[in-house]
Amino acid sequence: MTRRSSLATALLFVVTLVLGGLAGAATGLALENSVARPAIPQASGQCVAPKEVMRRSHMTMLKHTRDVTVREGDRQTAEGLTACVTCHAVKDATGTVVSVSSPQHFCRACHDYAAVKIDCFECHASRPLSEKAVDNEHGVGATDVAALKAYAEETTR
Amino acid sequence: MSGCGDACKGGCAGPVGGETIDAERRSFLGAVGAVAVTTLAPGVTLTAFGGGEARAAGADPAKRWGLLVDISKCEDGCTGCVDACKTENGWQGGAENQQESQWIRKVSLRDPKSGVTKSAPVMCQHCAHPPCVDVCPTGASFKRADGIVLVDKHRCIGCRYCMMACPYKARSFVHHELEDQKPWAPRGVGTVESCTLCVHRVDRGEAPACVTACASKGGAIVFGDLSDPKSEIAQTIATYATKQIRGDLGVDPGVRYRNL
Questions:
Q1: Of B25, B68, B205, B217, which has the most beta carbons under 10 Å away?
Q2: Which residue of A has its CA nearest to B57?
Q3: Nearest residue of B to residue A144 by CA position?
């Protein structure tokens, strides 16, 4: 094989790689655009970490918090699900804060898109306590709200 | 539960500091991937950060929380402690066919010979050697460093072995899907639950809800640290005769009864 032909082969190889890559990227973009991007509801306060970190690592942070809180009794942790659902509460057309049963719920917006099941809300409330006072037959007193506030402050300290 | 938790086993102390680097790395890899369409292993950016750092806060192993119930002050028919527990932890209603949870109940005691009746509240006895913890196959039942026995519902699979093992019938199983639980007392379908000694209140330095409610009624329940000889509960136990229910079982309950 001559030097020229081997050079041509190498060139062809490189061109194929680049073209294939571009074609692949185009297909990927097309696929990505074919599914509607989630509409992420705006939060009402300041998050414990930047958006990029939260999107990638919120589950790890929550998992870490839950273990030290439940098993070791450490309630000084900065991150907590109660603070999350309070700050990320979403109101529907009637002004009621939605629970996770609604697709409008903050967590569901992305989780539905990514098709990842959330187990948290089988046990944890998916909306802040003070907002459900209206439709709760047992009612929630002012002491409960004050206790929640103290608890939220305690957990976010 | 997703598998990504495994990457973080052994502690994720300082997640924010570690994951700042992670985010940068991710965006860099994302840029590279868009041009070369390189398939990267999905776990590449998930790495464990550092070791577990020692934490000062949390349950104090020097303490052992307990209750002392004076039966002579506990009125028959009064359900102040039970109602307070229901309100505090939100376990009332929502179930049929006797499937309702029961964290605390009033038990009537009657001496068949004399006919004397007494009433006593019975809840999780927070044993020093809890049988529920012994039998739990997943490690969900556990005893905290300060003696409070809890169910870690993140690990509970709902097998109910602990309910069988408990000599006090203190635990309940949640049969129904729930919504809007109390933020400080998460509880959900398919898990076992019981009295937590109001662990969320104890951690902020308050007494359990039943004790606070009883103080305004009969003042029959005293809460305190059994390991502290200066505490009211320890001094009362040292002065007067008190009993543990089924003390013969050797589980050493943290709940004691006076005048039983």
A1: B68
A2: A74
A3: B88
| CATH value of B65-258 in 3.20.20.220, 3.40.190.10, 3.40.50.300, 3.30.70.20 | 3.30.70.20
Å between A103 CA and nearest CA of chain B: 16
Residue B242's contacts (CB-CB under 8 Å, 6 or more residues apart) are B68, B236, B256, B257, B258
- Residue A108 CA, distance from chain mean position: 8
B181–chain A nearest CA distance, Å: 5
Tell the residue number behind the tokens 């376990």, with chain if given.
Answer: B91
Q: How many CB atoms sit inside 10 A of residue A14's CB?
A: 10
Is the interface score ipTM higher than 0.90?
Answer: no
| pLDDT tens-digit map of B166-195 | 999 999 999 999 989 999 999 999 999 999
SS3 call for B110: strand
Question: Per this entry, what is the length of chain B?
Answer: 260
Helix (H) or strand (E) holding B165: helix B161-165
Region of B144 please: left (phi>0), alpha (psi -120 to 50) or beta.
Answer: beta
